[in-house]
């Protein structure tokens, strides 16, 4: 079944065409409807029709303008115009857009069926031709874009000119090299973004041709009519990047070449666009990046080992602003001079290794938040998405080390807390007082009360009671023990007090708790 898109600003007529014409009998299914050209472009993006039946006179964007843009989006789509006016100017315009036919309202179903039979036959012929010629065209354009030999480039241009739908050999154009830079992109979202880009480019009224470089990188030749068109092309890609991020959560980066004038120059313009796209490593992903020539970068001004000493001094003295400034200077130099990615990674690895060596005693068993050890994610260092990501990683890692240093300074009394907890866990069954605990750690009772509450969030008595009640819960599982025996075993001589305290914490009495267990 072939898909048709119906476009008419008259709702009653649109509904009649959709519901009362026997499309299925013609081998056609209605894929979508729209009430004007602008809306139709969006519907076309979603349903990808083979045939479009559109009214000529419509508000916002008329049928002729829409058909022209639709042809730019999909040169193989078949256009049939519909109008209540048998006017030569419309028929002439329709022919210029290579329309398949022009029907007058009200529609004659027999005439429509005859025309659709011709349209479907043309769809079948074009499909066979397209599959052959488009495959050839893509191979030729790919070859031209990477060809080193000037003589061979002339050969590829001559062969492209012989295709059924050739690229212009002369004319201003820009090469757009774009990449999907999200962590993961579904095939559905990738196709949606590629279609979105095609729609936006079609709105520029410019000729363009696109081909895949690999699974996540694509290239487009966009022909221009002058400097204003270049600015519009940049605006167009800004919109594509923004919508791709908002609608599909896809990060798209676009490199633009300088303006070319001859197709034979495609190799140079392709190289510029690819290099511009590669500059996302320095400027960040999710941007439009025009090509800028860069001189060869000099060596790094600061040796990583010397810089490590400066950075370690700032870290050890908890000078976070100074550490941030040193790291920023380290990466700013690379960004300004466009130092090669491999050289940047090598310098960063050397810097981190030296910092690791200097802080080895501190980092050996240290953790952040008592959860994860501080280790270097070498994969993130060796395969960074951008200079910005590498900068952020080194900053975060330095901050982690400073956090450990602060924790070490603040938690010198943790040993005291651990001694108190250990003593409670061992002697909970005895008459244990705060004074006993204070004497054990050689501190005053008031000081350990404050310190324990500060570090654990609960008082010493609350912790002691919690340990005793938990131990009582375990002992109650042994039905041979009487309640008063359990009470004494956990340090309470007064059984009534024990029962009251147990019920307060567990919501039931010791006897009720035991019955629930048995």
Overall description:
It is a single chain. The chain is an alpha/beta fold and 518 residues long. The chain is built from 23 helices and 13 strands. The strands form three sheets. Strands 6, 7, 8, 9, 10 and 11 form a six-stranded mixed sheet that branches. It has helices at residues 11-20, 37-47, 63-73, 88-96, 109-146, 150-161, 187-202, 227-248, 266-278, 280-283, 304-316, 320-337, 341-358, 360-363, 378-382, 387-410, 414-427, 434-441, 445-456, 460-475, 483-489, 495-506, 510-517; strands at 2-7, 28-34, 51-55, 78-83, 101-104, 170-180, 208-214, 217-223, 252-256, 260-262, 288-290, 367-368, 372-373. Helix content is 59%, strand content 13%. The modification 4-aspartylphosphate is found at residue 55.
List the main descriptive attributes of the protein structure presented here.
five-stranded parallel sheet; alpha/beta; 13% strand
């Amino acid at each position: 079944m072939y898909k048709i898109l119906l476009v008419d600003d008259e709702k009653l007529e649109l509904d009649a065409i959709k519901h009362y014409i026997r499309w299925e009998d013609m081998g056609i299914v209605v894929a979508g409807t729209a009430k004007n050209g602008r809306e139709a472009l969006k519907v076309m993006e979603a349903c990808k029709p083979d045939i479009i039946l559109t009214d000529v006179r419509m508000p916002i964007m008329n049928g002729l303008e829409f058909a022209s843009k639709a042809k730019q989006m999909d040169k193989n789509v078949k256009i049939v115009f519909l109008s209540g006016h048998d006017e030569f100017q419309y028929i002439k315009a329709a022919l210029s857009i290579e329309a398949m036919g022009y029907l007058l309202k009200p529609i004659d179903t027999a005439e429509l069926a005859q025309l659709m039979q011709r349209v479907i036959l043309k769809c079948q012929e074009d499909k066979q031709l397209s599959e052959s010629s488009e495959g050839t065209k893509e191979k030729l354009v790919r070859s031209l874009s990477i060809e080193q030999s000037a003589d061979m480039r002339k050969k590829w241009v001559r062969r492209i000119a012989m295709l059924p739908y050739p690229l212009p050999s002369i004319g201003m154009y820009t090469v757009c090299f774009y990449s999907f830079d999200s962590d993961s992109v579904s095939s559905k979202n990738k196709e949606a973004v590629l279609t979105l880009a095609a729609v936006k480019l079609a709105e520029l009224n410019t000729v363009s041709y696109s081909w895949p470089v690999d699974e996540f990188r694509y290239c487009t030749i966009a022909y221009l009519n002058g400097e204003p068109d270049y600015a519009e092309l940049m605006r167009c890609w800004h919109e594509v990047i923004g919508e791709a991020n908002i609608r599909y959560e896809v990060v798209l980066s676009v490199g633009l070449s300088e303006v070319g004038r001859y197709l034979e120059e495609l190799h140079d313009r392709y190289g510029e666009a690819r290099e511009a796209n590669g500059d996302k490593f320095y400027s960040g992903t999710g941007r439009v990046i025009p090509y800028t020539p860069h001189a060869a970068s000099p060596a790094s001004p600061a040796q990583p080992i010397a810089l490590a000493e400066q950075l370690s001094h700032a870290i050890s003295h908890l000078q976070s602003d100074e550490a941030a400034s040193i790291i920023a200077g380290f990466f700013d130099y690379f960004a300004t001079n466009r130092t090669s990615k491999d050289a940047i990674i090598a310098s960063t690895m050397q810097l981190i290794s030296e910092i690791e060596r200097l802080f080895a005693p501190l980092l050996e068993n240290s953790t952040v938040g008592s959860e994860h050890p501080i280790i270097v994610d070498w994969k993130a260092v060796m395969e960074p998405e951008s200079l910005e990501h590498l900068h952020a990683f080194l900053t975060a890692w330095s901050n982690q080390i400073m956090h450990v240093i602060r924790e070490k300074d603040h938690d010198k009394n943790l040993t005291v807390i651990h001694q108190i907890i250990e003593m409670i866990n061992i002697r909970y069954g005895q008459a244990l007082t705060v004074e006993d605990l204070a004497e054990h750690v050689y501190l005053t009772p008031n000081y350990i009360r404050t310190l324990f509450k500060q570090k654990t969030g609960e008082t010493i008595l609350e912790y002691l009671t919690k340990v005793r009640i938990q131990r009582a819960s375990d002992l109650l599982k042994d039905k041979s023990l009487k309640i008063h025996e359990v009470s004494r075993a956990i340090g309470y001589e007064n059984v009534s007090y024990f029962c009251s305290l147990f019920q307060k914490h567990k919501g039931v009495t010791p006897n009720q708790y035991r019955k629930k267990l048995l």
